[in-house]
Amino acid sequence: MTTADQQALTDALSAEYAAVYAYGVIAAYANTDRAKLVAEYTAAHRARRDATIDALKAAGAPVPDSAAAYTAPFPVDDPIPAAKLAVTVESDCAVAWRSVVEQSDLPATRRTGIEALTDSAVRLANWQAILGTNPATIAFPGKP
Q1: Tens of pLDDT, residues 74-87
Q2: CATH assignment, 3-63+71-131
């Protein structure tokens, strides 16, 4: 694994750490009708986090620890801000995984980046639709 691959995966791991933490906040305030969706998305981010840790370890790369806590970019105290936080999280993950695709030298790492970017873009579109954003999707997800 090249230095570029390691750095891109480390950055993506940081986004996944933040996503897992944020989904705990989202779960606390999301509409109760969305509990299954939030649990599914939380599990997806945990799985992606764990797979990224495994990839870095397999390459002999250092694996940074997650922060003890993360700060939401705005107060989250009811379902609408919770859904907006989910949009922010998925946007941030899409940016990080798009960077993996752009920076990676290895086909396997790029493939992982494409899969993760696609997953984040689908979750992002779903949250956008929940919030009534029209259109719910964007042409190039993950573009900073």
Answers
A1: 999 999 999 999 99
A2: 1.20.1260.10
